[in-house]
């Protein structure tokens, strides 16, 4: 996965935790839509592995 994609997903997680859902979608959607099939698979795996990032603060893990 490109570093810029990872940063966008991590930022979307931060925004989601802060209740800023519209901004989170605006951040994540463009990179998800622009991903090629290989990166799309990596994004799907990352989202599955990091689902807690969207609901818990990192220090709560």
State mean pLDDT (0 to 100 scale).
92
> Which segments are poorly predicted (pLDDT under 50) over 5 or more consecutive residues?
none
The total strand number stands at 0
Q: Provide a count of the helices.
A: 3
The H-and-E topology, N to C, reads as HHH
Tell me which oligomeric state these chains represent: single chain
End-to-end distance, in Å?
24 Å
- Largest sheet composition: none
Radius of gyration: 11 Å
Helix content: 55-70%
Keywords summarizing the entry:
61 residues, globular, mainly alpha, 3 helices
Short account of what is shown:
By secondary structure, the chain is mainly α.
Textual characterization of the structure:
The chain has 61 residues and is mainly α. The protein contains 3 helices and no strands. The longest helix has 15 residues, at 3-17.
